[in-house]
Amino acid sequence: MSKNLKIIFLGAPGSGKGTVAEKLIKDYDIVHLSTGAIFREELTNNGPLSEKINSYLEKGELVPDDITNELVKNKINNIHDNRSIILDGYPRNVDQAKFLDTFFKVDYAIYLKISDEVVIKRISGRMTCPTCNKIYNEHFKAPKEPGICDIDKSLLVKRSDDNPETIKNRLKTYYDSTFPLIDFYKNKNCLVEMDSGIESDEVIKNIKELISF
Ligand code: ADP
To answer: What fold characterizes domain 6-114+177-211?
Structure first.
């Protein structure tokens, strides 16, 4: 098993970055860092930055770079050098990518490509189990009992930013700020484009065919 792979996941909200990363780390020794998850954890723990972070999350805007960059750098610095890492949701604009470049060499930028229609259906129907983190969808992958996790019977929750108004803004933010990163990484010859409008298991199969972890 090769080690020390540095991978980033690019893609619109709802493109499957978190789902695919969570499934991959079950099979390989990879650290999964999701900036969105880190921010949500800060809110749950009522951390010192929670009010500020929440004001951006609820609008579907990016948390300012100074907060995000420092947080990501600290997390990466605490990971042992030879471990493989997936960054999910970072970088999300060109300035973040340039900052990342100063201390992290990206081997693969995996672009999970998906249409806006599928994104909206996926996000609006998304529900997560707070206990085991399994993700369901009212439209595609409903739990056996509505609103209840099949595995541990916990009450499923919706992310507060998964509402129609915020979803619209998150998509706008994606096209304005994050989409230019496709060309940024294409120019660095490490961009890999993957159709992500299909079942996540299929996406993972395609990724595994391409990258030897
Ligand atoms: P999604 O990709 O579905 O929008 P995430 O969990 O990746 O979900 O992100 C949720 C929110 O967290 C974003 O809308 C944004 O407010 C914030 N966020 C996540 N990553 C970053 C980042 N790299 N820079 C700034 N804000 C971020």
So the answer is: Rossmann fold (3.40.50)
